[in-house]
């Protein structure tokens, strides 16, 4: 019976993870096409679009932090069979989406003229980068809906619907890109409009599906502020937000440091980051499934199931990331050629991709450890580790490399490698030294 139960848990993990992995891989492939379309306009266009990537990560982290809390709360309630609490959470999601999406959207649009200046971008691309960022920031309330509502759906084991919606939205984005960038001749501005339109439609669709879900459906009127749900969301989501903010601000500073090394170096850096994305996405798909199943095991008060899921998710993620890391190492140069014809950009980007490929198993360990913590609602440790790694290791060493030693992009990526290795070990060691069971009991008691 024990082996049968383990096989069932492994099957659940894989079944939940596959749509998320496919969603993220196919979305990234379509984003590759998006980046390649802009890349054909030249290095300046690529830099204009890529310049604010880190800022977009920061904005997305606000939505993702709420999503982390939603997964932890909804999955535990789902495991416990508490449908009333699930519907209470659903009503609060509507409030969160409207409040956070509108406020952050207004700030992003208002700050769009100065962000490229803060990022130390070359004067020649500042205006173009500002217009691009301003346009894609207009529908941020819909982007909030896409992220948060998708998390709610995944928490009740519906990973297929977010996959379909995001896939269709990205296909639409590519079609609009072709029409607006080339046919209409709008260039970078056309790419921004395409992104804004597809984001808005995806957000609407995700919200409608959530409200039609048999498990998540709630009454839109009257909406009431739920103090207990809000406090639980803040307790779990605030450290997650702080984690993402610390990491994303670190990415912004990191990107600005690389940007100061010149347009060619920054283009190689940003394209290499985009190319790497495809190879670590399977880890994030498994992280999502792990968080959901860990949360459900807490709701069911099944410690044995929790331990099995924890062990299986770690092994599966690390092995998968070792395979993808090998593929990235072997195909680094062809990946760079997808995005740019510039030989110097290809040379620099291929070199750093082969370096970071070696760290993919460690990166996988970091990702799955985060998923376990998130499922347990224990987000404070991820904040401590992420802040220390991002600012104490990556940023500090990069400042030394760029401004003191005047090194190349390769040495800068060694700093990123060191950050990834530190985070993986710092988060995994506490989990596998017995603290995981204490975290399980603590989360169970808080329900």
Describe this structure in words.
The chain has 17 helices and no strands. The mean pLDDT is 88. The longest helix has 38 residues, at 2-39. It has one domain (2-446). The protein has helices at residues 2-39, 43-50, 53-80, 83-111, 115-118, 123-137, 140-155, 160-183, 187-212, 227-259, 263-300, 303-330, 332-339, 343-357, 360-375, 380-404, 409-446. The protein has 447 residues and is mainly alpha-helical.
Question: Layout of helices and strands, plus pairs?
Answer:
Layout (H helix, E strand, L loop, with lengths): L1 H38 L3 H8 L2 H28 L2 H29 L3 H4 L4 H15 L2 H16 L4 H24 L3 H26 L14 H33 L3 H38 L2 H28 L1 H8 L3 H15 L2 H16 L4 H25 L4 H38 L1
Helix pairs in contact: 1-8, 1-11, 1-12, 2-6, 2-11, 3-4, 3-7, 3-10, 3-11, 4-6, 4-7, 6-9, 7-8, 7-9, 8-9, 10-16, 11-12, 11-13, 11-14, 11-15, 11-17, 12-14, 12-15, 13-14, 14-17, 15-17, 16-17
């Amino acid at each position: 019976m024990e082996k049968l139960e383990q096989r069932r848990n492994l099957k659940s993990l894989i079944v939940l993870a596959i749509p998320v992995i496919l969603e993220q891989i196919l979305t990234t492939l379509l984003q590759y096409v998006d980046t390649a379309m802009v890349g054909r306009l030249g290095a300046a266009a690529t830099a204009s679009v890529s310049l604010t990537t880190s800022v977009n990560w920061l904005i997305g982290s606000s939505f993702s932090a709420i999503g982390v809390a939603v997964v932890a709360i909804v999955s535990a309630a789902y495991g416990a069979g508490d449908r009333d609490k699930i519907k209470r959470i659903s009503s609060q999601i509507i409030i969160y989406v409207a409040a956070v999406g509108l406020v952050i959207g207004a700030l992003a649009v208002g700050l769009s003229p100065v962000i490229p200046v803060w990022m130390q971008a070359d004067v020649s691309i500042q205006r173009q980068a500002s217009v691009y960022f301003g346009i894609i920031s207009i529908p941020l309330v819909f982007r909030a809906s896409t992220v948060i509502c998708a998390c709610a759906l995944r928490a009740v084991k519906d990973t297929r619907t977010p996959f379909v919606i995001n896939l269709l939205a990205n296909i639409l984005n590519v079609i609009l890109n072709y029409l607006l960038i080339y046919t209409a001749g709008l260039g970078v501005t056309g790419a921004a409009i395409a992104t804004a339109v597809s984001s808005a439609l995806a957000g609407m669709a995700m919200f409608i599906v959530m409200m039609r879900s048999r498990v998540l459906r709630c009454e839109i009127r009257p909406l009431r502020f739920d103090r207990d749900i809000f406090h639980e969301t803040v307790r779990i989501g605030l450290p997650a937000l702080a984690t993402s903010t610390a990491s994303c601000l670190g990415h912004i500073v990191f990107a600005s440091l690389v940007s100061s090394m010149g347009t060619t170096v920054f283009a190689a850096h940003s394209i290499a980051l985009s190319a790497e994305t495809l190879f670590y996405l399977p880890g994030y798909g498994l992280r999502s499934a792990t968080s959901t199943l860990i949360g459900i095991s807490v709701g069911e008060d099944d410690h044995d199931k929790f331990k099995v899921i924890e062990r299986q998710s770690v092994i599966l993620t690390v092995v998968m990331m070792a395979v993808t890391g090998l593929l990235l190492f072997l195909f680094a140069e062809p990946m760079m050629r997808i995005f740019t014809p510039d030989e110097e950009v290809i040379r620099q980007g291929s070199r750093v991709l082969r370096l970071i490929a070696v760290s993919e198993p460690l990166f996988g360990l970091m990702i799955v450890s985060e998923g376990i913590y998130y499922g347990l609602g224990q987000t404070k440790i991820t904040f401590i580790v992420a802040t220390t790694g991002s600012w104490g290791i990556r940023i500090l060493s990069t400042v030394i490399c760029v401004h003191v030693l005047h090194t190349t992009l390769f040495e800068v990526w060694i700093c990123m490698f060191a950050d990834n290795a530190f985070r993986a070990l710092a988060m995994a060691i506490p989990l596998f030294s017995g603290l995981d069971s204490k975290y399980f009991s603590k989360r169970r008691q808080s329900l």
